[in-house]
Amino acid sequence: MAVDGKMSVYDMPAPVCFIENTDEGELKVQDEAKQILSNISQPVVVVAIVGLYRTGKSYLMNRLARKKKGFSLGSTIQSHTKGIWMWCVPHPVKDDHVLVLLDTEGLGDVEKGNSCNDAWIFALAVLLSSGFVYNSMGTIDQHALEKLHYVTELTKRIRVRSSHEKDSKDEAHDSALFLSFFPIFIWTLRDFTLNLKMNDREITPDEYLDNSLKMISSKVPNAKQLNLPRECIRLFFPGRKCFVFERPASRKKLVVLDKIDEKDLDEDFVEQTKAFCNYIFNKCKEKTIGGGHPVTGKLLAELASCFVNAIQDGTTPCLENTVQALSQIENQEAVQEAISYYEKQMEATVKLPTATVKELLNLHSNFEREAMKIFMKRSFKNEDNEYQKQLEGVLKSKYEALELQNMKISENKCQDLLTLLSEPIKKKLSEGFYFKPGGYMILVNELQEMTEKYQKTPDKGVKADEVLLKFHYENESTKMSILQMDKTLSDKEKEIEKEREKAEAVKQENEMKENLRAEAQAKMEEMQKNHEENMAKMLQKLEDEKNQQKQAFEEMLQNKYQEQQRLRDEQAEAQIRLLQRQIDELNSSSCSVM
Predict the structure, then answer these.
(1) Over the stretch 148-166, which tens digit does the pLDDT of each residue have?
(2) Helical segments of 475-490, H only
């Protein structure tokens, strides 16, 4: 599906490189990927997968794309994926959402000269995703946990705020902001051969994961170091899930896994893969930032650029600065989108000249109201109302420019009409037709007929009365000259006629001024009403954002405190168990001595 001549996200035939890891060890966001993402205005669900190289990450991502081929599988011991690759596909479950799949280069690739980027790629996958898949072979043991040492480095590689000065409230806020960027953690165990049993009871993969992450007693040598990855996983990722997979096929068939029919794969593996995909499709949420603001494709591209630029500049990516920078970009684009909507609607709807000022003002108010809805739907962290004020100012300027254009078009149209209608009178004036007895009344009657024709002509616009009044004023001296020369009228009658003309002119001028005053008052009141409505809506939006953010932070902090308490309890239990074993050993030794 093409839009405006550009490739739609749904037309992506294959993945593209999102973040390149160059031979020189530099990370670069690719322009092609940014262009694709910039065309995605829908919220995105971002699923990233990391793990050691040659562990089958790409196969799972292809299944999530519901394709056999896409991300390179490879068939040798070499790593095929370099950097981070991206594939955008329609979300199979969530309407008006896009599923963005990120396949990362294998960790621990011996061919890479610079292993520092492993940690950065791991961190980027965490920060950019709403679903983070860690893929490994075999079981979860201490060796497997040690390979996840990247998770213990996240706090070193990600900074929450730009200022290092903070109090206890800031620390709580920082912890919540830190966790707000973190996705759900999904551990996929490939070629899993153990029976899922514990104490003669069958357990689920999730229970297996939770049991594997239990703390080791502090009495055990190097317990602190051994527990570090366990503690980090549990504190950073309150939401956790585990899937186990049988070996999909024989070694020979694994070489051509992307060409094998599903019926030729292990049945359990096929069902396990379907369960994994269904979980991702139904449970992974859209990516959000800033306390719940949905991330679109364009925002995802900006998010990646902010992080990668910080890394390449040699600084630590700062979450607070990143959110602030993204809010500025998003709010500015929200302003532009609202302005574009207003312009298009006014251009398509307004027919100049309008009959009244109110008609144009009503159209402006209606489309300004809709434009504000568009702005507020997209904006976030507009705490000082800077961008709303900017939008209001631009729309006001555009309305006032249109108002001037409306008056000018009306004025020109009315002048042209009067020129046409008064042409016979002007011709008679030039011939001296009215300079005769009774000529004045003939002129008055013909001017009255002309005025009636003028007033009956439709679509003259807002300047109709003013232009007519000006026309009569400009011709007043000619009328008075003809009046003075008309010998059929006495001096008294001429004086009465002068007063009547003067009174009529004053009356018409006062009526016009009153109409202009009433229109100006109505315009001011309408503008003020619109402003107050917009401010009330924006304040409500800010209040809703704060409440949503507060609720999300409180939930994250509560989860963290509960996890910390469980960690302390487990450490205490482990120490008790260790002491009990020591007591049992001593009792056993005592019995054997006796």
Answers:
(1) 888 888 888 888 776 655 5
(2) 476-485
